[in-house]
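job 3f2a | input accepted
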Amino acid sequence: MPTERHATTAPVSLRERRRTAAAREILDAAEQHIGEHGPAALSLRAVARGLGMTVQALYHYFPNRDALVTALIAKAYGELSDALQAAADAAAGTTPSIPRLVVVADAYRDWGVARPEHFQLLYGTPLRYYAAPAEGPTTQAVRRMGAIFQRELFAGFTPAQLAAADVPPLSPPYREHLAQLPVHAQGDLPPAAVALFLSAWAHVHGLVVLEVFGHTSFLGDHRAEVFRTSVRMMLEDIHRRIPAA
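job 3f2a | predicted structure (245 res):
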């Protein structure tokens, strides 16, 4: 009889499990520190002190501050994307009165308002001397989030419809730049659709930034309604610019 071979995965060693658990504990402590003091106050020394360990011991898990910041940003983007996807999934298969793009935008706003310090880590004043690694985990995390917005913004439209969208004339250099974007950076969209996507993203994100940084407090308890109404009007305008099939 032929013998069956089953692929086996080598078990993770105790040392690696402990290392993973320690790195997770360090990330949790760093997140807590940011929540209490803001991202600008983040330092390896402060995190190590909060864990009762030395900076030298922390270097075994994160060799420098940039490595820790990169892990924190990637984790925050991952949690934000999870929240957006969960909102989209909850609206799937139903016929809600609120468009799914608005539902996803609401989830984006809710996450930022509930976690202002972590939102500032992602979108506030850049940390001094920090530069995200090119094509690193932070880039991948941003692309995942962008893909969710793109999917909900253009759901139901064909590439031909998106290519024929009514947008102000794009200069040849700008159109060429958009056409050369890689697929994972909206390069699979025609230039007119990329222009619409960037406009929509600026609209949604700008409204959340204004609220998180305290510039819409004069609206009081109406901020959520103002946000949702504005996003719906933006979405309707964009969809009017895309011709019918």
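job 3f2a | Residues 71-240 form a domain with the Tetracycline Repressor; domain 2 fold (CATH 1.10.357.10).
job 3f2a | closed
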